[in-house]
Amino acid sequence: MKRSVLKKKKKRTPLKIKRTFVMVCALLLIGGMCIAIAADFNFGTSAGAFQKIPTIAQTTSAASETVLSTTLETTAETTTETTALTRSETQNEANTVKYPQKPVDRKKSNASGFHNPPDGTGKMVALTFDDGPHSKVTEGVLNVLGKYGAKATFFVLGNRAATHETTLKRAIGMGCEVESHSNIHAHLVQLSPAALAKDMMNANNSIEKYSGVRPKMLRPPYGETNKEMRAIVAMPIVLWSIDTRDWAYHDADNTKRSAARREKDMQKVVNEVRDLVRDGDIVLMHDIYSFTQEAAEIVIAKLAEQHWQMVTVSELFEAKGITLENGKIYRGAWVE
Predict the structure, then answer these.
(1) Active-site residue (options: 115, 130, 134, 246)
(2) I need a surface site. Which of 110, 177, 285, 309 has the fewest CB within 10 A?
(3) Taking the model in full, what pTM does it have?
(4) What is the phi/psi pair of residue 126, to 5°?
(5) Which position among 164, 279, 286, 287 bears the catalytic label?
(6) pLDDT tens digits, one per residue of 62-85
(7) What is the average per-residue pLDDT within 223-246?
(8) What is the DSSP letter of 334?
């Protein structure tokens, strides 16, 4: 009779111990990830955003780059933003000044509409148009300006000047102002110093060639600016105090809105000026949309009816006794 061999049973690890082991491993993994993240980020308080710190590899790479590939550094100025967001709805650069904040002490007009100037003397406002020129829209805006004896400042793109020479010279002839909006509408704060200088030179040369007047001020695309950019540009930076958001309401992709919807959107643009305008303001619009042309006709007619003087940016600051300086940011010429 064969002996039965008794096999020793292996003891099973209790389920509770297994779960504890898995939890410990998970905590160690999460802890390692947190350490890695903490090493790569500085939890700053500026604008409530994370400020990334370059890693050793990034720092070494950056040190070996030439000026042509060096990105402009941002400054430690406080970020401001409007209540009405424009094309870029978020601010990636915490220290880059973008859309100017509307004055906190601004008060809406009374129910009668535009503010009535005191003693009938007429207050001043500068209407400005970006992104043009446009063969139909800019010409249409010039027509209505001429009708009311008004002037405006056109911040044009250098790469559009050659094909709109007649329009630019007409604007100059009417006493309007033609200034720079860069050459190709790039994010200027993201360009290398060499690329930025080249863009400015190309824009200014082109605008001067086809308008007959060299630009003396800049409105950077998207309203983006920082200290390094302003030093290279070496021009006054003219932003705005009233953003009509006209670009947000135009017919996009050839999709037509109903007449009722278009009228409602038109009223929003008019109301933005009507409710906020005050002496010394700079109003932002874009002369590349037929929608803007129609809105501008209403706005200009209303301003003229209320005896507003619609002048160029240069005339506005000169009248207020303010000298524009290179590298400084201007949103309006208010007499407080």
Answers:
(1) 130
(2) 110
(3) 0.68
(4) -110, 115
(5) 286
(6) 333 332 233 333 322 322 222 222
(7) 96
(8) -
